Amino acid sequence: MKKAGITIKDLHLSFGPTEVLKGVNLDIKPGEFFAFLGPSGSGKSTLLRSIAGFGPRPKGSILIGGKDVVALDPWKRNVGMVFQSYALWPHMSVRDNVAFGLRERRIPAADIATKVQEGLELVGLAHLADRMPNQLSGGQQQRVALARTVVTEPEVLLLDEPLSNLDASLRVQMRRELLRLQRKLGLTTIFVTHDQEEANTTSDRMAVLDGGVIQQIGTPQELYDTPANLFVANFLGTANILEGKVETEGGQARFRTTTGDTLALPEGKTASGTNIVLRPQNITLQRDPGANALAGQVLHREFLGGQIRYLIKAGGAEIVVDQSHRAGRDWFEPGMAVHLLANTDSAVVL
Amino acid sequence: MSNTHETPVATGLAERMPGWLFPRLSGLHIVALFIALLLTGLLLIPVAQVIFVAFQNPATGALTLQNFVDFFGTSLFRESFWNSFYVSAMSVVVATAIALPLAYITTRFHFSGSILIQSLGFIPLIMPPFVGAVAMQLIFGRNGTVNLLLGERFGINIPFMEGLNGVILVQSIHYFPFILINLSASLRNIDRSMEEAAQNLGSSGMRLFRKIVFPLAMPGYVAGAALVFIKVFDDLGTPLLLNVNNMLAPQAYLRISGVGISDPMGYVISVILVAFSILSLWASFLVMRGKDYATVQKGGGGMAKRDLKPAEKVAAYGVVIFILLVVLSPHIGLALLSFGTIWSFAPLPDAYTLQNYVTMWAGSKTFIVNTVLYAGIAATLDVILGTAIAYIVIRTKIFGRKGLDYLATAALAVPGVVLGIGYLRTFHAIDVPLIGKPLASWWVIIAMALMIRRLPYALRACMAALQQVSLALEEAAESLGATKRRTIQKVVVPLMTGGILAGFVTSFATAAVELSATIMLVSSNNDAPLAYGIYLFMQTPSGRGAGAALGIVAVIVVAIGTIASQIIIERDKKLKASGDVQ
Ligand SMILES: Nc1ncnc2c1ncn2[C@@H]1O[C@H](COP(=O)(O)OP(=O)(O)OP(=O)(O)O)[C@@H](O)[C@H]1O
Ligand SMILES: [Mg+2]
Asked: Which is more confidently placed, A274 or B19?
């Protein structure tokens, strides 16, 4: 199959007076599995739909395989889209649903039959070809929708929250299947979700959107470890954010919080900014004070099984700390005075 | 950049010109334009023509109010105006008297007869009112069943059917379901908690009803009442069949068919009819708007119902059965008349026979063939136009699309008589090529009138059907390479089939029994449809039996249509129930 890259340049889109996409720039490589992640209303679906050619016509350019498609009607773009609602046509059998796009391309009937068969085999549904959509389970409908799209050999595959209508266990299974299929076909794929676990586990790279603006692009790990701003830091996982400023004293950089506590930053780390981001698992709790440790008080404790999550008042904020749980080890009780030792190697100053 | 994708050379010039000079016309634009022209020619111009002529001096053509002065200066017209108003208002009162107890009993009490009321309450609507009129005379007339029995027992005679009373009785029996349906719906929509909150604050009984229930149910009632008022105000067939001519619609008909199409009085009456139509549609729109008292909350569900005590139950059944007997009397009377030999000065026909049906069949084959033809054409065009307009209004951004919707819906405010007069006036001077007749007396124009009259209903059905089709189903087709046209053809229309079919059946069934526009446009008995046939039969006492038989045919046609469209809609809902989650 053809692999096409997607380049989006300075894309603006408005619904009437409200601007929903405010200058999106994006470069997706051929064959990449790319995710759009962001809170509700951030413009993920709008951006995805504008790649497929739906919705108001945007300003800017969308290049698919080097060709600007902004002015093209949806049916003239070779872009496959899988809808959140699956959008299977209830008046056509599974076979006819899958054959639809091929028939529109005026492919000889014999070829259509084999391609439909292959497509259904790909998703493991060849035995259900003659069923009507309303005789299928949610997961099966999802697979038919996928087969219907991939048999037309699109240059890119767009998926708008394809798993959100499935129950939790099926969702995990389907996302693996999706990834397997994508790898097998090598299709350039964009996946919209607001579930970060889904994005983390499937995508090669992802873009975090907020308010119609891309906040950061990178691999899931890069985004988690080195968020570009507080929004990304907060959106991906739990982040403790302390306000303050960076001071340098004798070549040693330190972060001084607004409450006057200081955290030594690793040697050689040059940082500037007024916030420090600490992940819950990068903080250790101890009873005794120590160098580089913040004094605090336990507010609340939750036993999560493998971990214990504490809420600690320290450094002018309420800090979440995760400690791995081992049988027999003592817990810190609410009300106790504790000291937090932050691993500043993995901290980010923003 | 816009010049990187291929642009066919032919459109190059047009694209460089200003947009307004060469608007990019898609197929849908052309369809929209065609529909606009059609509605303009068949609705806007004829009605505008009628209004214009009403304000025109018949001799000089100058604009004037003289026609209205003349109208109100003539005592017959003043009387007709007052009679139409009186009959409409009284019909609302009597229809309310019938509907209120039924609505109250079904919504407030656990009453096993509720189903009876709900299903039988619709039966009057499946019979054109004028069909029942003659049968009603035989039951409630001076020498009808009821008065003969009353005279025998108590020596009294009640003038149920004398003059205007007859029109009021026939109309209110026919149209009360409009009030019943609307009133029951709004009573059912009142949340129990509304009532309980009032009770909690110390209100009860009649006071509770007056302060809470009544205001909340008011918009639904007013909407139903306005509909009854205007239907009665516009109706031509019933007064004509009961030989009550001193009302507005019959006067308009008689002036145009008797004096001729240049007589201004028919036009003045038309303007008055249209004005009242608009007024009452507007009134019901006003009360409904912003007062959508659908207060049922999650977990709520209608007003509190209570059980009836045994005595109350007997009384309730008594009331319901009495009302149903009255309501069904036109049907019973019509059936008796159609199977009876001679029925005159007797409570029941002398003997029973099938002869009327034989006579009817022999004498009305043309009527039936014509009806199928006219109603078939009208209903087919209605669903085609309805589908196209629905698609254009809901799914495109074509300039002026709302206007198409308004234009098609405006037909609601145009009484049949007015449309008929408008067609006569507008099309009498246009000759149909090859036929050698004016367009106004060509049978096709009857089908066109029926099409315009039924279009608003067909349009609503198509819009509802299209709204059921999720947009994602269309987008899926487009993203798989289907053009707009192919998407409409392969996905949209097939998925709308149920709704379209239901619209077709309703349009067909109701067009088949329409009389007011047709009666103006039928130029020879050979062109007459069924409704006109019934009217002709009923003109002579000897033809009444056959007329009743034809009436039974009409009732059956409408009944089958109504039931069929219900079944289609239900089945369609089930099919759509899945396939597209959301
Ligand atoms: N047809 C429309 N008309 C007007 N505004 C719209 C329309 N569609 C979307 N919007 C607005 O555009 C913004 C972005 O919507 P979009 O559907 O792209 O969000 P999303 O990121 O996909 O959210 P979700 O996760 O809830 O699906 C929202 O503020 C929404 O209200
Ligand atoms: Mg979305």
From this structure: A274
What are the strands, taking DSSP E only, across chain A? 6-15, 18-28, 33-37, 59-64, 67-68, 79-82, 156-160, 188-193, 205-210, 213-218, 240-249, 252-257, 262-264, 275-278, 283-286, 293-303, 307-314, 317-324, 337-342, 348-349
Q: What is the pLDDT at residue B194?
A: 62
- Determine phi and psi for A60, rounding to 5 degrees: 105, -165
Write out pLDDT tens, residues A208-264: 999 999 999 999 999 999 999 999 999 998 899 988 888 887 778 888 888 888 888
The 10s digit of each residue's pLDDT in A162-217 is 888 888 888 888 889 899 999 999 999 999 998 889 999 999 999 999 999 999 99
Number of the ligand 1 atom closest to the C-alpha atom of A48: 18
Lowest mean pLDDT among A151-165, B307-321, B401-415: B307-321
Instruction: Give Cα A101 distance to the centre of its chain.
Output: 29
Distances B164 to A113, B241, B247, B488 between C-alpha atoms, Å: 72, 12, 9, 52
Q: Which two tokens stand for residue A234?
A: 């907060």
Tokens at residue A14, please?
A: 């408005």
B377 and B196 Cβ atoms separated by less than 8 Å: no
Q: Considering only the beta carbons, identify the residue of A52, A91, A134 that sits closest to B479.
A: A52
Pocket perturbation via mutation, ligand 1, pick of A22, A44, A195 by most ligand atoms within 8 A of CB:
A44
pTM of the model: 0.77
Tokens at residue B484, please?
A: 């707009």
For residues B416 and B405, give the distance between their C-alpha atoms in angstroms, rounded to a whole number: 20
Structural domains present in chain B:
71-353 (1.10.3720.10), 355-582 (1.10.3720.10)
ipTM of this complex: 0.79
What domains appear along chain A, each with residue ranges and CATH number?
Answer: 6-233 (3.40.50.300), 238-349 (2.40.50.140)
Report the residue among A12, A40, A46 best suited for mutation to probe ligand 1: largest number of ligand atoms under 8 A from its CB: A46
* 3-state secondary structure (DSSP) of residue B199: helix
Residue B133: which H helix or E strand, with range?
helix B129-140
Question: Measured from the CB, is residue A44 less than 6 Å from ligand 1?
Answer: yes
Q: Is the CB of A40 under 6 A from ligand 1?
A: yes
Q: Is A20 in the pocket of ligand 1 (CB under 6 A)?
A: yes
B480/A86 touch (CB, cutoff 8 Å), yes or no: no
Phi, psi of A257 (to 5 degrees): -75, 165
Closest-CA residue of A relative to B481 is A75
Q: Check CB contact under 8 Å for B480 and A80.
A: yes
Give B378's Cβ-side CA count (13 Å radius): 35
